[in-house]
């Protein structure tokens, strides 16, 4: 029974006429709204069954960002496993899985110990993220190919929003004490120091862009 009906039943007979009944029904409706709000608040705690419009609040609480264009059920599933995800924070695996979430599945991370790139003096630990296709932006543009100055970032073509998302993801999931030397977008070719040697059939040249974090 609703509070709207219960409140009216509890009223004295002389308060159940038209005006008195309306008064008690109004008081009951306020209680019904409060009870419904309390019920919904309990449901909101449970990611698996909460309304869709509650997911952004759950995401903010768990610091799990929704990827642009991500289906609702995919985001809900990631929120359900938020604590498992955070166990990998600060690890290379955590960075790779976070990048896979935004569509970057071909990722190699080089560190001081396994890459001969010179680091910054005084930096305790550096790493570099190498991304191969599929990439969110196109390869470098050249003068005369029709690209208008200012419409594409130097060294690549396409929108800048995916690059900001890429930076944000790496900054969030990397270890706090580490410094990212560069994010290297490699459309073709191989990087010097990435495991190949002269004479093994590797072709010199390629297209790459270096992105500061």
Q: Would you spell out the secondary-structure blueprint of this structure?
A:
Blueprint (H helix, E strand, L loop, with lengths): L2 H8 L7 H27 L10 H8 L9 H9 L1 H5 L5 H10 L5 E5 L14 E6 L29 H13 L5 E10 L18 E5 L2
Parallel strand pairs: 2-3
Antiparallel strand pairs: 1-2, 3-4
Question: How would you explain this protein's 3D organization?
Answer:
The chain folds into two domains: 3-44; 90-211, no CATH class. The mean pLDDT is 82. With 213 residues, the protein is α+β, with helices and mostly antiparallel strands. It has seven helices and four strands, in the order ααααααββαββ. A four-stranded mixed sheet has the order 1-2-3-4, with helices on one face. Helix 7 links the parallel strand 2 and strand 3. It has helices at residues 3-10, 18-44, 55-62, 72-80, 82-86, 92-101, 161-173, and strands spanning 107-111, 126-131, 179-188, 207-211. It is rod-shaped, with a radius of gyration of 28 Å.
Which sequence of SSEs, written as H and E, runs from N to C?
Answer: HHHHHHEEHEE
Label the structural class: alpha+beta
The number of helices is: 7
> First CA to last CA: what distance?
59 Å
Given the C-alpha coordinates, what overall shape results? rod-shaped
Strand portion:
5-15%
Low-confidence stretches are: none
Could you tell me the radius of gyration in angstroms?
28 Å
Q: What kind of sheet is the major sheet?
A: 4 strands, mixed
Key terms:
single chain; 213 residues; alpha+beta; 2 domains; 7 helices; 12% strand
Summarize the structure.
With 213 residues, the protein is α+β, with helices and mostly antiparallel strands. It is built from seven helices and four strands, in the order H-H-H-H-H-H-E-E-H-E-E.
